[in-house]
Each structure stands twice: as C-alpha cells, then as structure tokens.
Design goal:
Layout (H helix, E strand, L loop, with lengths): L2 H21 L13 H5 L11 H12 L21 H13 L10 H18 L6 E5 L2 H16 L3 H5 L7 E6 L4 H9 L7 E4 L9 H13 L3 E8 L11 H11 L2 E5 L24 E4 L1 H4 L7 E5 L2 H8 L30 H36 L3 E3 L7 E6 L7 H17 L6 E5 L2 E7 L7 H16 L4
Parallel strand pairs: 2-3, 2-4, 4-5, 5-6
Antiparallel strand pairs: 1-7, 6-7, 8-9, 9-11, 10-11
Helix pairs in contact: 4-13, 5-13, 6-8, 6-12
Length: about 475
C-alpha cells in the first residue's frame, strides 16, 4: 500500500466510523453468533499473496462485525461501560499513526511529560491528595497487582524481590466479599497464595463491615500473621456499593497496613464535588485506582493509578539493563518503572484530548445526566407492582428483579429472571448482565454509555415490562 492508497482507504474508514457511531443503536447490541461461527468463516491458512484492502474491509463488515458486541451502543446496559467518545477516537488514530513505544522519557519525551501533567490534572479534578503521584496503567487489575507488589516489598524491606519467599512469611490481605475478582487473581500472581486473602462480610447495603475487618486483623495478629494490605472498594462491581473508607482508613492507620482503593468505575464521579464524600479518609490511603475507560469517555485501555510513596513503587519494579541506560535518568519520570510491563502505549494523549474537548463542566454534565437517569429508573421500578429494587442505587447501577405477586418461591424467581434476561438479550435491542445478591439472581441495569439518553432508558424499561408479561406464554 502506498501513500495515495492509504489516504483513499483512510477517508473511507473515517466515513464508515462516523456512520457507525450514528447507526450503532440500530445494530443488535449483543452478537448473535454461535461458538465457532466466526472461526468457520476464516481461512485455515494465511494468504500467500497480497490481498486488496477493499476485499479485506468487505470481510471485516461481513464476517467480523456480526460477531461483535457493540459496547458503544446507547442500549448497552451490561457489565460496566467501556466508553469512547469522538475526541478519544481521534486521539487513538494519532497514537496509532505515531506508533511510539513510550517506555521511558527518552523514547518519547512528550508522552512522559504529558502523562505527568494529565495525572496531576486528575488529582485536582477529583480532590485527591496533592502528595499523590500518578501513572497510567492498562487496567485496574494491573494497578491492584502493582499495589500488592509494592506493599509486599515495603513490608519485606525489598527482600522478596531479592531472595523470593522463604516460606515463613504469613502475610494477610483483606477485602470485602463484594470486591472484584481481580484482587484474588493479583494475590495469586504476587505469590501470596489464595489462602492469604481474607474476605470480610458486608452489611445490608453490600458495604464492608469495618468492625469485622478489625476483628479479623486482631485475630490474625494473635495467630502470628502479618496484615499487609487492605483493599477498599468505591463502587463494587455487582451493585456499586461504597465501602466506608473513613472507618477503614482509620483501621489501616492504626495497624500500619497498606490501604489500596479500587474505584474502577465510581472514581469518575469524584469530579462531581457532591460525591467527594465517597473518599472521606483518602488522606490515609496509600494507593488509588480508577478507570477513565469506564465512565470518563476515554477509549479502553486507560487506568489511572495514584500512589503516595512513588519511591517504593519504583524500587519495587525498576530494572536497569545496560541497553536502557540514558543521560536523562533521574531527571525525569521513566514510567516503565511504575508498572509491570516494559512496553507502554501513549495512553495520555486520548485522556488529554477528552479532558480538553469536554472540559470539566462538560464531563460533569454528562455524569450528572447519567446519575439522574439512574434515579428516574429506580423510581419507576419502585412504583411497578411486578418489579423490585434489590440494592441501594448510590450511582448508576440499578439491581432489580421481576417479582410477580403470584410467586414468592426463590428458586422459581431465579429461573424467571434468568429467562427474562436471556430473552431481553436475544432480542438484540438491549444487553444486560446479572449478579447474585443474598443468593438471589438479579439483573443489573447500568446507565453509563456515552450516548445513552432518557429515550434509550425508557425504551429499555418498556421492553423489560413487555417481555416479562410474555414469559409464561
């Protein structure tokens, strides 16, 4: 492909991209394919000769697109969103064109210094402690692993990095039963072992019980264990429950335990001053992560990780072979030492584009609109005779279930709601996911996609009611 052909194809691609954004809500939200269907349409062997880009793009539209779930659809109400926006996509195009590997300052000074500035912007926008320093990770999972590794090395005086586990370490990590599964995965990867993770029960609002946390720490100390890290969640995956950070922070401070906060989705809401109550006690937090790629309209992947003790983070992860030594070392942030991978994408560019193009006010307006829609839906469900709210709605996730007056049998209600959700998803008009709360199967309705409006929420609610009425037909 030469430059002229590239220009021609690029214009066609951009036209298609713009049309996709305008028409995505008309496509089936969830891919309607069976396992292996896409594989069957792909040749077993790679092409020996060059293929025409028009043919390749045709196959993208005919083979790949039908097998995609459309996360940018305004009718996507599943999981948590992985949001995009026009400025973010434009930045990604530039990032791909530059093709830079931004592992250290030397490899692209602008990438490193823009990242430093944008992370400081976020600290100001969210009301985080000014002594925090930030770095962009790929996901919150990686950020949590990084926090655990740093806590481990600081506690062992960096000896585990040098000598490995000697077998007599008895570390304990604490989280609630509602904490994201990435914590358990990180505990395994970091070498602690699954049995080192202590899960604390939650209250009726699905928040960690600080009293039980303190009891668990005291019990472990009496049995010779070393409490290493507490992970508090601001916005749990199932319900967006908000752990009582201030009380947890007091406990971590009392026992001198590393405190990490996972605010993957909910952290975005901190740009709204009225939600800063969620991080009362943050001055005692050691590390904090949230994902702009979830609810701040920035393409996946972009996870903002903040740490109080950057020196310990760097000491945990730094490595300096001869071929990476530079004259600028020690004068700048070489972010390859702030995370697990050496290679780094230029993620700061899209975040910079988004913050500048929306402005703080524009971002706040979008988030407040989503929160308003969520409260309106909650009220509609409360007023409905055949549906019930199953958890508090502090943010933008509504957990509900269909509960007709004719039955109170838990097993039957579970089957009914599972059937309801699958029928809704099979319609192609919406996409929902579920969770279990107190043993009950419940449907999650998450309002956070960039282009979702009141019209989309109302249509989805009407479809839910209509589909529920037909369940027994």
């Amino acid at each position: 492909m030469n430059t002229n052909e590239f220009k021609k194809q690029a214009h066609q691609f951009v036209d298609w991209m713009a049309e996709y954004f305008e028409s995505v809500e008309k496509l089936p939200v969830k891919a309607k394919v069976y396992p292996g269907e896409i594989l069957e349409k792909l040749p077993l062997k790679p092409p020996a000769e060059a293929e025409n880009m028009d043919e390749i793009f045709h196959d993208f539209k005919q083979i790949i697109l039908p097998g995609m779930t459309h996360w940018q659809s305004p009718n996507f109400f599943a999981y948590f969103p992985a949001n995009s926006s026009y400025p973010s996509v434009l930045a990604e195009m530039l990032t791909a064109t530059l093709g830079a590997q931004c592992m250290i300052w030397e490899t692209s000074p602008a990438a490193a210094e823009l990242e430093e500035r944008v992370m400081n912007w976020l600290i100001q926008m969210m009301g985080l402690p000014q002594e925090f320093e930030g770095v962009i990770q790929d996901t919150a999972s990686t950020a949590t692993l990084t926090a655990l590794l740093t806590a481990r090395e600081k506690a062992s005086k960096f000896q585990i990095n040098e000598n490995g586990f000697e077998g007599n370490e008895k570390y304990r990590i604490y989280c609630s039963t509602e904490t994201h599964s990435s914590v358990e995965k990180a505990v395994k990867i970091a070498g602690f072992g699954r049995n080192s993770l202590v899960k604390i029960e939650v209250d009726e609002e699905h928040k960690m019980k600080p009293g039980l946390l303190k009891e668990a720490i005291s019990r472990d100390l009496n049995h010779g264990f070393q409490p290493l890290c507490i992970i508090a969640t601001i916005g749990t995956t199932s319900t967006t429950a908000i752990d009582p950070l201030e009380e947890i922070a007091q406990i971590s401070s009392e026992y001198k335990i590393w405190l990490h906060v996972d605010a993957a989705l909910a952290g975005s809401a901190l740009i709204l001053p009225e939600f800063r109550w969620m991080i009362n006690g943050v001055e005692k937090v050691d590390s904090f992560v949230f994902n702009p790629h979830k609810w701040l309209f920035t393409n996946f992947d972009c996870s903002a990780y903040f740490v109080r003790d950057a020196e310990s983070l760097i000491k945990t992860l730094e490595i300096l072979p001869e071929y990476l030594k530079t004259q600028s070392q020690g004068q700048v942030n070489d972010y390859r030492d702030w995370g697990v991978p050496l290679g780094r994408r230029f993620r700061a560019l899209k975040l910079w584009f988004v913050i500048r193009n929306f402005g703080i006010k524009g971002l706040q307006e979008k988030l407040r609109y989503h929160l308003q829609l969520s409260q309106q839906l909650k009220e509609m469900i409360i007023k409905s005779d055949d549906f019930e709210i199953m958890a508090p709605v502090p943010l933008n996730t509504i957990c509900f279930r269909y509960h007709p007056s004719v039955t109170n049998d838990s097993a039957q209600l579970d089957k009914m709601n599972e059937k309801l959700m699958h029928r809704l998803n099979e319609s192609g008009k919406v996409y929902f996911t579920h969770t279990r709360l107190n043993g009950n199967y419940v449907i999650r309705f998450v309002i956070g996609q960039t282009q979702t409006t009141n019209k989309h929420v109302q249509k989805a609610w009407e479809l839910i009611k209509e589909t529920a009425e037909k369940l027994n037909n």
